[in-house]
Amino acid sequence: MRTLERAFAIIRCFSPEQPSLTLQQIADRIGLAKSTAFRLVGALEQAGYLVRLPDLRYSLSLEFVRLAGIANRSLDVARLLRPVLEELAAATGENVTLNSVSGNERVCIDVARSKSPLIGVNKPGERVPLGLGAASMVLMAYLPERELQVVLPSAAKVAKCSAKELVSILATTRSQGYAVSHGGGVGGLTGLSTPIFASDGSVRYALTVVVPTARAKGRVASLLVQARQASIAASHKLGGGCGRIGPIAAGAPREAATVH
To answer: By CB distance 3.0 to 4.6 Å, which of 33, 43, 50, 180 could disulfide with 258?
Structure first.
């Protein structure tokens, strides 16, 4: 069991920021003697999970691409996260949506409805241009830089602001780990959105509580805490860690990431 734990620790050493590592770096990261790390790395290489590059550094093999493809086909994200959405809707008494991004559009993946009917909540499968809705801001805030640059011009146009202003809003959104939008998506509705992290640290989904703006007064901070807790649970289901989601500060959210 200890050997297995160490093997998984080695695999988790790699990240998008550091896709290749030297043997010494691997040993240092998991706190092992270099000789022990050498044996484990050799076993993983022989099994086909690591490859040694020409510069003698190591990286994950394409075996993980094959495994990821199997996981993507077998896991229905909407069904997997449905219990989280339903629990949040029951706890808040408000509608909750699961959203993703496709090109320059926000896609509604699923909706958990509260007992109070709410006009204007997206239906599963609906697509809207990325803009200043809470889910849109969270999804754009965590896009890789190259992808963000592609969607930025159209999103800024929808948001009726400059690309520079939108980048500033997204930077604040990412810094505080949430977005609040009063009418930025649909007039009269407030959206409170938090990111869902995958195992590689990426964010392709956002959890959003949707509430009539008149009913949101005095509740924003508490709703954000509940949304954050739900995002942690959802991230765990996707293999992500809760440590990536920062705490919600007491009091009102920062205005820079709140759209009126």
So the answer is: 180
Residue with tokens 């200890």: 2
Torsion angles phi and psi, residue 34, rounded to 5? -60, -35
Q: Residue 39 in 3-state DSSP?
A: helix
CA distance 97 to 207: 6
Residues across the chain? 260
Q: Name which of 40, 62, 35 is nearest 49 in CA terms.
A: 62
Secondary structure E strands in 103-202: 105-112, 127-129, 179-182, 189-197
Residue with structure tokens 């289901």? 237
Give 99-134 pLDDT, tens digit per residue.
Answer: 999 888 999 999 998 877 665 567 788 889 999 999
- The β-bridge partners of 108 are 99
Q: Is the model's pLDDT at 247 over the cut of 60? A: no
